[in-house]
User: Which sequence fits this backbone?
């Protein structure tokens, strides 16, 4: 069986390390493409776009650390494979508890990097094909389907909910928001208000103004700001920044 061509993202706040990893990965014919990010926030923006099979994550970075990003990705049905890259071995046990493919110590040797790619390829070969639940929506008497992963946030409207998708537009389906929040929790959706549920993968920013927390999520060409109820604020912070369980 031929090795899959992996679409790869490298995340490291040190530009020389980032450049070297990108260069070495570009020499491996099992790598289809390599993208780079210098922060956790930038990495999440790339991951929002999908089409990433393998992520090389620096463990210690300003803002969101590699471990925090991995916990967040671990909530999703088909997360990319993860290889941690670090100057220290203190987090190795925690990394493998997150089902990391490998754990590389800096400075990374090319032959060791190739071994990580080999492990990632083997993992992809035995993994089930990615799936994403499809939701039937009615548009002008025509039934169409949207994927759950494309939904950035959900808004309650009486006995219905409105699904707002990343590309723009929205769809009304008949289900209570409470039921949807419970059913979609394992897929990375979190209740932030009595009338809103957000897809954590699509959260671009957290804002605090006047002591109130809000999140920004994409909808078409705009970012929509959604207020977080005080009773949901602590749980949301923990999901994104601490446990992401």
Assistant:
């Amino acid at each position: 069986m031929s090795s899959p061509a992996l679409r790869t993202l490298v995340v490291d706040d040190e530009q020389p390390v980032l450049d070297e990893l990108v260069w070495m990965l570009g020499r491996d014919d099992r790598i289809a493409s390599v993208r780079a990010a210098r922060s956790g926030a930038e990495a999440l923006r790339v991951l929002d776009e999908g089409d990433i099979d393998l992520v090389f994550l620096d463990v210690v970075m300003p803002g969101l650390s590699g471990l925090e990003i991995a916990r967040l990705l671990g909530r999703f049905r088909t997360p990319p494979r993860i290889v941690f890259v670090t100057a220290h071995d203190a987090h190795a046990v925690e990394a493998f508890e997150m089902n990391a493919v490998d754990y590389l110590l800096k400075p990374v040797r090319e032959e060791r990097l190739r071994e990580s790619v080999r492990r990632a390829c083997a993992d992809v070969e035995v993994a089930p094909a990615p799936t994403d639940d499809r939701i039937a929506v009615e548009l002008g008497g025509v039934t169409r389907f949207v994927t759950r992963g494309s939904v950035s946030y959900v808004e309650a409207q009486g006995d219905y909910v409105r699904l707002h998708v990343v590309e723009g537009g929205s769809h009304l389906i008949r289900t209570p928001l409470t039921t949807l929040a419970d059913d979609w929790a394992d897929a990375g959706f979190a209740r932030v208000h009595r009338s809103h549920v957000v897809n954590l993968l699509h959260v671009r920013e957290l804002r605090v103004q006047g002591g109130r927390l809000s999140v920004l999520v994409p909808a078409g060409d705009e970012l929509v700001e959604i207020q977080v109820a005080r009773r949901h604020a602590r749980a949301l912070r923990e999901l994104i920044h601490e446990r992401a369980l």
